[in-house]
């Protein structure tokens, strides 16, 4: 969709020159859409060699199981249902024939498109130089990169927030056809909610702000907003009703989602854990942002007070726009729940735009300092000229991008390349070993972290939970999940009990439980048993005794 140039600046858009970053065009001979598409294509291509080949996590297995039978009460997938995400994967699955590959293909595509729309949104907000710099920071972000390699929906957070932000920025600027864009944006938010339901409350404030603040008569603004709201509701109903129907009706769906949300509210939110929950969530967000932005945090912290100062927010709609993009997800993650690094992708693109602006602002401050000292120190005269700022920002961001890429490719950490490869190695070797030597009717698997992956790859085997975190709050302090033990009498016909993700065995009397080394850090524990033997297990604990 072609978007007309922005309207001329109004007095409210004018800010002090010292606070305005340079807006030079780093590629004056190329139209911005071509630059954005090139960056997006390079991003998608960079994901292909490092993609996962096995289901990365518990949630990934839930999504894969949903392709065979969709049912939220059975956690296929887990609540709230991710209806359009699973539906999109089912279309790709018909072509690729592999569940993990289908979901990973969606993550790769979403990563490339997220960079495209971020570049377009950043260009409208701050110019082409910021657009290119922000796109490079996002594309090389360790957190963003990891989410583009696995069967997770988090890359769609970056995609839809960037797409809606671009559309909202165009609406706020009063482009030709802004009313139609307002309606379209409502539909886009409805689609986004079908991939990640939290995107509806996250993006609605930005949409409302853009629709109500765009130039034009109030009646036109309100009518466009009402039409957009109607389209949003229709889109949501189009995927919500089938989702509930496939899940056995409202009673079954409501019970499943209600218990799921109650657990997270009790265990992670400020409502459930009060100040401790707020502190834990805040600390997690800081860690995720450190991993997601890397050295870009240096100019961001330097420029923070200037860019988001009250004076700047009152006079610069672009700063207000970014703040409205940032606040809803941040408030939710701090007060309610932040599950893993992928969550921050709902606002990481906005921070990448700010990081690019901050980098240019820092370098422009250095230029202004050199200009002030040039009379006393003639050697600083070249640095007093503005022409070097944008190229220097490109060098700085290239360095940030290189270090961020190395974080993903070389360093250890959650979701990084080493973990992706190790999980592939674990599942490929363990599944092959179990299939070869342990018939389903004679074996029992006891697992936790990867129990859903085993359920997908070994559907005929019986699987029991090693321990259950979800009931920890419902028992006494002396029965916390890491202390509880389950005792099982081996049923007739079972000759082996396997513990594929025990981690380590803390039992001082493991008895029949033996460790099997499958090489390169892959192992599992096996107990050769017979009917009537007693097996006890729990968190990092396994023991088996003969009759």
Give a written overview of the molecule.
By secondary structure, the protein is of the alpha/beta class. It folds into two domains: 381 residues, no CATH class; 107 residues, no CATH class. It is built from 20 helices and eight strands. Strands 2-1-4-6-5 form a five-stranded mixed beta sheet. A hairpin with a 2-residue loop joins strand 5 and strand 6. It is globular.
Q: Terminal Cα separation, in Å?
A: 73 Å
Q: Give the low-confidence spans.
A: 1-23, 472-478
Number of strands: 8
Q: Oligomeric status of the shown chains?
A: single chain
Radius of gyration: 26 Å
Instruction: Note the run of SSEs as H and E.
Output: HHHHHHHHHHHHHHHHHHHEHEEEEEEE
The total tally of domains equals 2
Strand order of the largest sheet: 2-1-4-6-5
Overall mean pLDDT stands at: 90
What is the global morphology?
globular
Which structural class do you get from the secondary structure elements? alpha/beta
Helical coverage, percent range: 55-70%
Note the total helix count.
20
Query: Tell me about the biggest sheet?
Result: 5 strands, mixed
Into which percentage range does the β-strand content fall? 5-15%
